[in-house]
Amino acid sequence: MNTQKRIGFIFLLVIAFGVLFILNSNEVTGAAKQAVTAAKIKKAPTGLDDPAWQKAKSANVHFEGKEKFAGKKAAVTTKAVYTDQEIYFLFSWEDTTKSVTKGAWEYDGQKWNHQKGNEDRISLLFEINRINNFATKGCAIVCHVPEGAPNAKEGKFGTSSAAEKGDLWHWKAARSDPAGFADDTWLTVISEKKGGRKGDAGKGGDIKNMTDDKSKPKYMLAPGKKLAKNGILLASDSVEIKDYSVFKPGDTITYRMPKMPEGSRADIKAVSRYANGSWTVMLYRQLDTGHEDDMALNPRKKYNFAMALFDDSGDEDSYDSEVLSLQFGR
Amino acid sequence: MNKTAGISLETVFERLALDRIIKRLKELDVPADALTWHRFFGALLLALLVLLFLSGAFMSFYYSPSPGSAYDSVDYALFTVPFGDIIKGIHHYGWNLFLIVMGLHLVRGFWVGAHKPPRQLTWVSGVIILLLIPAFIITGDLLPWDQKGYWSTQVRISIMRSVPFVGDFMVRLLQGGPLTGIVALTRFYVLHILFLPVLLTFLLVIHFHFLIQRGLSDSLSGDNLSTKTVRFFPVMVNRWLILFLCVTLVLGLISWYWPAPLGDPADPTDSTYVPKPEWWVLFLNQLVSIFKGPLSVVGSVIIPGGLVGFLIALPFIDSSPERHPARRKMVMLVAAIIAIAVLALSIMGYLEHHV
């Protein structure tokens, strides 16, 4: 083969493959869905300000208000990185009020009352098993009860069939963050009486700190222990109150005491900071926990997920994102 | 060398009554330039076709042709089965490359006058093979049951339905009813893995029959290498195997770095999804969008049909013995106009749908 033919051959192949790549790129053929691309890193970030985050591209995810927030908007700057073992998300959003009350007890000198106020939260929903139409309609399919469901009025979460399962990562400023975790739960079929949201296998969640007659707190900080982040009393640091006379007016005690999670429920660890009117939250987890109640992440795949933001609110008073695509850089 | 446990390979062939065939193959001579760089595209197409058949057969082991499970079965084959993503990628990039190389094969054949007597039917059978490839792509596109495949099929079906007189019948025949559901998916699957491959193999046999009987086209330079011969086995087979391995390796590497896309699961209720036409169909799509209303048949049937008619009739229109492009000005001008029109429409379509 002479040089001319060789050059021609190489030129032809380069053109052919070039055309192939350009016309078959995922961006061209894919639907217009906002992507969060996790950057591959070698060393896991140790905190919110780790230089590793500079490698991740920011996605400014927009949220639409629902229920009492209807008509309002919010935005969360989202980043993701991953190592061979773990995935890390970094979320930051403006919030003029740090809300960690979650109905804490306050003593007025006569009796105990619940303080007004809820908590700030952010949640992510992935699919463990495919949830029909989640890829196109997102949380509308599960977070707001399938249309016509018997308990639609109660606003329960759930899927339409047992085969459809979701993985819900739920960071709660008052009920999970002080323990250093996001609550790891999952979604299954919604039943007539109950929603489909379940805690992952193991222990976790929180305990309602109240006496049997619900009139006052049952537990207080155990001697020698310290309150956790945001002044929250962890269940593991509490002791039953024997003498209520030690309290003076204005004293407060946590109402919803986070439990230190164990087992599959302890898969998602959290680090957070509230400063200058903004929350910054890092959530991280094994790519594949090996647990049936978690979705396994394979960096060669893309995943649909959706997020919800709660500003000092509960139930369905939230800001919801559109469906997002989690992708992995190489 | 040819003895295994005391029995020679020749004896085995003799027992299997293959000895005469093997002998003929060993003594078969083929033109020395049957697989050289200037006759590269045909061999490359054959390599790609074998790869497509093999990768498709592999994927069919895991595929479930039902709307409720098709997507998950593809997802499983792609990401859970070892090397599934590579094999799916080879299939995906393979057919894209196949179309490109087929186009180049056609252009090269036209350029050197390979359609001229006595090779008219070699050309015609090649054009018919070319026409069959979109049927593979269209039927294969729906199989993953993802948004892109589902909604692209809807667009194609609506275009098919616009064909006068036979449109509705063709749609009913293809999808077994008014909706694209389980019957449609099963029919597309059977067409894709059974009927179309059998038809393609049959057409390839015809193409090779004419190729062998009418010979390879002579080169424009006048170097008549076709008069020199080499043994089919092992010289030609080895050359082809090297090519096959190279193509497999290149496509495998591409698939490793850029996995074949799998979109979101099909949601027939999601009318907001707008499928984007793929590169090979951009010019046809643009034709359809230019001719609307009562003229839609012009863009969907008349012009594409005319183009096909031109390709098939070419050996009989451009039948003079003159093969050099510079001395076939009229036909070259017509071809250039068609090529420019196809390219311009494709660019317009790309700018409209992808930018």
N-C termini distance of chain A:
38 Å
Q: How many discrete structural domains of chain B? A: 2
State which percent range the strand residues of chain A make up. Answer: 25-35%
Name of the CATH architecture of chain A: Sandwich
Q: What string gives the helices and strands of chain B in order? A: EEHHEHHHHHHHEHHHH
Helix content of chain A: under 10%
Discrete helix count of chain B? 13
- Which band does the percent of strand residues of chain B land in? under 5%
Main structural class of chain B: mainly alpha
Order of helices and strands of chain A: HHEEEEEEEHEEEEEEEEEEEEEEE
**What general outline of chain B do the C-alpha atoms trace?**
globular
Uncertain stretches of chain B = none
- Broad CATH class of chain A: Mainly Beta
Count helical runs of chain A: 3
How would you summarize what this structure contains?
Chain A is mainly beta. Chain A contains 3 helices and 22 strands. Chain A has one domain: Immunoglobulin-like (Sandwich).
Q: What would you say this structure looks like, in words?
A:
The complex is a heterodimer of chains A (330) and B (355). Chain A is 9% helix and 34% strand. Chain A has 330 residues and is mainly beta. Chain A has a single domain, classed as Immunoglobulin-like (Sandwich), CATH 2.60.40. The model of chain A is unreliable at 25-30 (pLDDT under 50). By secondary structure, chain B is an all-alpha fold. Chain B folds into 2 domains: 31-216 and 228-276, Up-down Bundle (Cytochrome Bc1 Complex, Chain C), CATH 1.20.810; 277-355, Helix Hairpins. Chain B is 67% helix and 3% strand. Chain B has helices at residues 9-15, 19-27, 40-60, 70-79, 84-111, 120-142, 147-161, 167-175, 182-214, 232-257, 282-290, 296-317, 329-354; strands at residues 3-4, 7-8, 29-31, 229-231. In chain B, helix 5 (84-111) runs antiparallel to helix 6 (120-142) and helix 11 (282-290) packs across helix 13. Classes of the chains: A mainly beta (330), B mainly alpha (355). Chains A and B meet through helix 1, helix 2 and helix 3 of A and helix 4, helix 5 and helix 10 of B.
